[in-house]
Amino acid sequence: MKNAKSLYHGHRFPAAVISCAVRWYFRFQFSLRDIEELLFERGVIVSYETVRRWCDKFDACFAHRLKAVRRKPVATWHLDEVYL
Length: 84
Description:
Elements: H1 15-28, H2 32-41, H3 48-69
Helix pairs in contact: 1-2, 1-3, 2-3
């Protein structure tokens, strides 16, 4: 049985850097240039254009993983003490 290649195979930067940049972009809605500066502060020199390409490539994968982790809604609601 063949091993499946990593989603990040062939990229210059490690998967942790790429996933962190994409997560920041979608979760906190930073601009691409803000993410470039945040990565630079951590010692990673990358252009905002590269971050944009990562976001375009990996956005569907991240959205799929977030939907899988999200809790399913239930029909039972629990209310604490409520005063009007």
